[in-house]
Amino acid sequence: MPPPAQELRIADGEPASNGVLRVDLSALARNYRHLRTAAAHSRCAAVVKANAYGLGLKRVARRLHREGCETFFVATSAEGISLRSALDRATIYVLAGPSSGEEEVYAAHRLCPVLNSVPQIVAWGQHCDRASRDGAPPLHAALHIDTGMERLGLSRADTMDVAANAHLLEHVTLDFVMTHLACADEPSHELNASQVRLFDNLRAHLPALPTSIGNSAGTLTGHYFQGDLVRPGIALYGGNPYSDRPNPMEVVVQLFGRIIQIRQVSPMSTVGYGATFRMEKGGMIATVGVGYADGYPRKLGNACPAVVNGRLVPVVGRVSMDTLAVDVTGVPPEDLRIGAPVELIGRAIALDRVAQLAGTIANEILTGLGARLSRFYVD
Ligand SMILES: *Cc1c(COP(=O)(O)O)cnc(C)c1O
Questions:
Q1: DSSP assignment of 279-336, as one string?
Q2: Which of 64, 215, 247 gets mutated to test ligand 1 (max ligand atoms within 8 A of its CB)?
Q3: Which of 4, 73, 79, 284 is the most exposed place for a label (fewest CB within 10 A)?
Q4: 4 CA to middle of ligand 1, Å?
Q5: Bridge-partner residues for 315, per DSSP?
Q6: How many angstroms separate the CA atoms of 75 and 138, rounded?
Q7: Numbers of helices and strands, H then E, in the chain
């Protein structure tokens, strides 16, 4: 069912928006509690990079903080600065770590770097040494060991280098050592266990520290894949953390587009660019004010349904930049009015199904949802 019309109203004085992202903050909080319960022997952080996967960094982070989440991960220092302005007390780790010369920015906003390379460790150590001589409180950091992504983090050789040169960490206060699983979405994949074994072998050469392993899927898969601090992202936002089993999470996000025009179409007319859909018998087309510029994938033209007042209708023709067309021939005329919301992603049309039809994953759909959509929060 679509939400009541007043829930889709936007704040007074804002220009009208034809696309609305409805974010259920209570469902977000329940997903957080579910993950925290699944990782009962770990602390549960939240990954809020990329504007909290497109949902809105500050609103999402404040709601999670209210739920008891004290530790957040972002990708970049700019995201960290933005989050700091919303949450004064939270602990914020930046996954990329400081670029050269950026250490002062981390200090100024109390951002904790994830140290991914030997040069980052060296620069951060020098910064901490200077800061402590100036009497500044020690800034905390985390260490990342790469065990199977070949992406970010210390390689095996880097880890041995750090282990053999204890002075590198002399001035660095480390909270934990982390690694990231490549195949956590397939819990029985053999790489998961071998990554954890390698992680244990490598970190044994370093000072003893708490660990952080699990992303969303790792968090739900058991303590071996969690570590002392878990880092779920997509599952908080209702995406399926698994690629091989049903989604255990609650729906958080619904995308609605408004009907901006309704037209009678004569037999044999074609709809949209490229004339890829023909209305053999004619009928009714509703034009919806959301297109690929809003993050609705162009691939979904002629491939995915939408929902008009509880009724499934096909998206027909190609998706345009700002609009898409739905065939509403079978919809009772009283349900067809200008401004009516059309559900494009949400309950009847699950995020994961949309992602699958578009040939991608929920993460990419969510982070692609455009700045032009108004974001509406319910709690
Ligand atoms: C993005 C990210 C996560 C969160 O992953 P999800 O699959 O969205 O839960 C955790 N850890 C690291 C290092 C990440 O980059």
A1: ETT-EEEEEES--GGGT--GGGTTT-EEEETTEEEEEES---SS-EEEE-TTS-GGG-
A2: 215
A3: 4
A4: 34
A5: 326
A6: 22
A7: 11, 19
Pocket test for ligand 1, best of 176, 178, 231, 240 (most atoms within 8 A of CB): 231
Q: Tokens for 269?
A: 């007319």
CA 78 to centroid of ligand 1, rounded, Å: 18
Tokens of 20: 């609305």
How far apart are the C-alpha atoms of 342 and 352, rounded to whole Å? 18
Residue 232 CB–ligand 1 contact under 6 Å: yes
Nearest atom of ligand 1 to the alpha carbon of 219: 9
User: In this structure, are strands 283-288 and 253-265 parallel, antiparallel, or unpaired?
Assistant: antiparallel
- 175-210 burial, b for 16+ CB within 10 Å, e for fewer? bbbbbbbbebbbbebeebeebbebbeebbeebeeee
Q: For the sheet containing 71-74, what is the strand order?
A: 43-44, 229-230, 211-212, 173-178, 140-144, 111-115, 91-94, 71-74, 46-47
In angstroms and rounded to an integer, the radius of gyration of the C-alpha atoms of the chain is 24
User: For 28-78, what is each residue's pLDDT tens digit?
Assistant: 999 999 999 999 999 999 999 999 999 999 999 999 999 999 999 999 999
In the block, which residue shows the tokens 């009283």?
334
Q: Compute the distance between CA of residue 120 and CA of residue 111 in angstroms, rounded to an integer.
A: 15
Q: Where are the beta strands (DSSP E) in 172-252?
A: 173-178, 211-212, 229-230
Rounded to two decimals, the pTM is 0.95
- Is residue 69 packed enough to be buried (19+ CB in 10 Å), middle (13-18) or exposed (0-12)? buried
- Give tens-digit pLDDT for 137-172: 888 999 999 999 999 999 999 999 999 999 999 999
Angstrom distances, CA of residue 217 to CA of 61, 197, 248: 20, 18, 11
